[in-house]
Specification:
Elements: H1 2-18, H2 23-30, H3 34-43, H4 46-49, E1 55-60, H5 62-66, H6 70-78, H7 80-88, E2 91-93, E3 104-107, E4 113-117, E5 123-124, E6 127-136, E7 139-144
Parallel strand pairs: 1-7
Antiparallel strand pairs: 1-2, 3-4, 4-5, 5-6, 6-7
Helix pairs in contact: 3-7
Length: 151
């Protein structure tokens, strides 16, 4: 009986691994993007990032959002237009894998550009890229340690 359950569990996990996940589902499954996922929902961007893309998302972790003073974060979450601008500033059209990242200015979905530097590690504006190439079926996620704000 125990062997049957472990075989069944293995089948289920292999079936789950075979199913591709979009950027939102991939971020949620990672477990350290709860604030980002909640913000995407408030901004009405979940369906967009579940769309065909492809998208490259510089995703701030929960720890990155925690760097924003609580009152400022709450104000941001209540201002849908500003929240949408901040979140779309973290998204670049296309699927840019780490091997393809080049230093320079990169236009975001929000309309402004991010400054990407590659000296001493990859940075996006002042945020450090801490993990790269988290593949999703409609793009890629690169993890950053700070929330970047459009000017």
């Amino acid at each position: 009986m125990k062997k049957l359950f472990s075989t069944l569990a293995l089948s289920v996990s292999l079936a789950s691994a075979a199913q591709a996940a979009d950027i939102v589902d991939t971020a949620v499954a990672a477990g350290n993007f709860k604030t980002l996922a909640a913000a995407l929902k408030v901004a009405g961007l979940v369906e967009t990032l579940k769309g065909p893309g492809p998208f490259t998302v510089f995703a701030p972790t929960d720890a990155a959002f925690a760097k924003i003073p609580a009152d400022q974060l709450q104000a941001l979450l209540k201002d849908k237009a500003k929240l949408t601008a901040v979140l779309t500033y973290h998204v670049v059209p296309g699927k840019v894998m780490s091997k393809d990242v080049k230093a320079g200015m990169v236009k975001t979905v929000q309309g402004s550009s991010l400054s990407v530097s590659t000296m001493g590690g990859v940075k996006v504006n002042s945020a450090n890229v801490t993990s790269v190439d988290i593949a999703a079926d409609n793009g890629v996620i690169h993890v950053i340690d700070s929330v970047v704000m459009p000017k």
